[in-house]
Amino acid sequence: MTDRRALLVGSALAAALVACASSAAAQTISSAPDEGAAQESTDTEITVTGTRIQQPGLISNSPITAVDSAEIRLQGATNIENVLNRLPQITPDANENVSNGSDGTARINLRNLGSNRNLILVDGQRLLPMQATDVNFLPSFLVERVDVVTGGASAVYGSDAISGVVNFILRKDLNGVLADVQYGFSNHHNDDQARRSLVTASGYQNALSSPIDGQRFDANIAVGKSFADGRGNVMAYFGYREVQPITQSNRDVSACALDPAQNNTVFTCGGSSNNEFGLFQPLTGPNAGTAFNNTRDGARTWVPYNSSFRYNYAPLVYFQRNDKRYTAGAFARFEADPAAEFYASFMFMDDRTNSQVAPSALFQGSTYTINCDNPLLGQQQGQLLCGGAYGTAASQNLFIGYRPVAAPARPRRDDLRHTDFRVTGGVRGEIAPGIRYDLNGLFSRVLFNENYQNDIDPVRANRGLQVVNVGGVPTCKSVVDGTDKNCVPLNVFQYAGLSAESLDYIYSPTFTRGMDKETVLSGTISADLTNYGVKSPWADQGVGAVFGVEHRRESLVFHADALARQKGTLESRGAFNVTEYFTEIRVPVFENRPFAEELTLTGGYRFSKYSTRDDGISTYKGEIAWAPIRDIRFRAGYNRAIRGPNISELFAAQGLGNISAQDPCSGATPAATAAQCAATGVSAAQYGTIIACPSEVCVAQGGGNPALRPEQADTYTAGVVLSPGFLKRFSLSIDYFDIKVRDYISSIPASLTISQCIATGDPFFCSLFHRDPRNGVLFGEQGYVVSTTQNTGSLKTSGIDVGANYAFDTGIGGFSASFVGTWLKELRNEPLPGLGSYDCAGLFGPTCGQPSPKWRHQARLSWSDTTDIASVSLNWRYIGGTKLTNNTDDPFLTGPTYVLNARLPAYSYFDLAFTAKVQGGITFRAGVNNLLDKDPPAIAQGLLYSFGNGNTYPGTYDVAGRTFFIGINAEF
């Protein structure tokens, strides 16, 4: 009874309800049934994540961490990725806290090897096209359990399962009604006096003292009906989720963009030189190379530019994007005969989210032209720009950094919409005792629409700057000559000089549209040969085997409108298919023998033939499990895995895009020497005059490569599981993992290219610079670092996972506790073969990106009362400290030394949840995450890479403050 009570309230410390020895083989985050069970087919036969073999009582030899529905509800999670990102094996990836540059998806990054190197499954089948996997698609209220399998699994599931597999097991057999509703919000007490004083001193607006924002509403319902004496079931569901945004203006840590000052020892409020008053740097004429700024008083006068004019772009940026999502779907099955059970599913999602950043600008980097007789040009401005040619029809070229921010100017918004559906169907059954088959198909489609709003069109802006006097009325030259009758003159020569008509003219939305499709046809035969006598003489259970074939096709079409193409977004299309043959075999060698309670060998093989290659590729695995006694079980495995390049990596057209980087050759006193800068393409005349990348945002050239080879990975795992008989309901698992990926598909990070060329002068890295020939910058239309896709070097990670679970009863109720932690030994990257490598374990910053602590863990302690009514649960999340890459002595990672952010301290977060049965099948829940309202670490802008936002890493650290939730779950 106590086991059942703990299961129902879900208050047990993740995985504390491991009531049988078999479940001890998994690290669990909440109550989980037999380890790795993906779906039950009979009372005694289950399918296990990590293998396709079906046998009674089967236990996976692969290390598995399981998260169940109780844990999801205890966290108050409406975004399933937030639950998984708490696991120490997973590094936050694309999520709701990414604004600038977001594609609107939520992805999972297992072992920090990249979200494209783990395979996402639903009930053992691929979720969506690998190119567009988005876990927003999943109805979280129907997730019964999530199995996270460490290490390569390509022999079982095919390409992409390099770092492991994440398998979502959904509830699909409802007989009645299930409803779930939840509301939540965030609240943070802004009392960081150091940040507030800094913002005040800079003349900016401080965050509100105690904002309430980020409201969430999630409502879901499912209806199901069994028929034909339980041989059939039909079920349908519908869900709606709405999330309100959080702006950076509402948190102390993000109220202004933080830059380092005084030799990187203190923070200062930085910003963008593309400011609201207007920066002008002539490229020709008497003052070529000199930067001027409009005065603050609105007069049409220039003064020398200085950093006090910089614009604080932070306040309007979203810390948490708004979101509106609809999900719907249906599941059906019918067993016409034990040899023929028909099944099908349909899942649909329409998700719309917006990212928001600061208002657009006439950005530096684009070359603009102003005629010297422009009537909007002030006299002093005209003389500085044109000299003696002022008032004539002559023209001058210049960089402009003018950002309209006063009304009616508007922030830039990226409207991102995904409309996805997934259809599966098949037939399965037992055609002879122990012989089962499964024939199935899957089709999924992802439709992506993007509308980027309120961005300034530089072509129209250039027309609006070329103005003449026509009868006393400033008029665009393009109106006079008829090339653009709609042109409106732009008065950029004074603060807030642009009219509503001017803004309407230069604001030009861009539209892009992409469609990914995936088709999978699969067939398997699984055999339990126990009844046929095919077994070891020392074992009771027979050999288990599976044979199968699978064909998969993926395609992508991506369109961009003319303006998007003009701004560097290029169209692409492509497709590939792969046919695969696979097999697995499991041989119990010893069972119930002295010093061999169990000794089992497992092997697997898959042959893959890609349409993009002439030859085939083999993947394989070997595993062993040995239990000398019931209380202890050893396991070890080896997997060879592959990842074929996805469509974008193969076929994406090459184009330019923004990246976070610093140009060490910029400024009046560059950080690099003249000789070092010469290796990057800086001329002697340019040295000391190059403009820094605005807001430390440079440009890189990216794109696909049809000649890419598949990645290959070798994974080694070894572990032990303890479940002592003298300590009931206790388990401890310790597993070592070692994963190495060769020929990994990537682009060489621009920050690495820059640092290596400067530090070593290596011709390979230095050849990747393409500086603007006019002025040497690394931004704009002609300045960039080459960063196209290619097979590069290797990735390697290793470490140890620890999981512990314990549950016991007392006179005052039941207690349960769980713990799951990961020690990261290494996270090594070799950019190119033979070049050397760098280790990011325990580091953050340029090249390594977001923090990779050497130790992370999550622990939950729960209590449930003796009446099976109420429970209370406390969760502890720990994130180890990390050091800044710049301050290491690794030549790949060294950079300017920072006293600021030299080390990010360890962080502990505590979450509290309460559940209570109201009546019947109705359960009430409430909770607060980040109970102590802990601030995230403040990090300088130049040190934020890969999902950094708002002066911190919001995927790693809580940025919203306390988050409260209240919900109700009803089943009847």
TrEMBL record:
Record protein name field: TonB-dependent receptor
GO cellular component, one term: cell outer membrane
Limits of the TonB-dependent receptor plug domain: 62-165
UniProt xrefs under SUPFAM superfamilies: Porins (SSF56935)
Stretches assigned to the TonB-dependent receptor-like beta-barrel domain: 464-931
Subcellular location: Cell outer membrane
Keyword annotations from UniProtKB, A to Z: Cell outer membrane, Membrane, Receptor, Signal, TonB box, Transmembrane, Transmembrane beta strand, Transport
InterPro entries hit by this protein: Beta-barrel_TonB, Beta-barrel_TonB_sf, Plug_dom, Plug_dom_sf, TAT_signal, TonB-dep_rcpt-like
Annotated membrane topology: Multi-pass membrane protein
Protein family: Belongs to the TonB-dependent receptor family.
UniProt superkingdom: Bacteria
Signal sequence annotation: 1-26
Keyword Transport on entry: yes
Annotated source species: Sphingomonas psychrotolerans
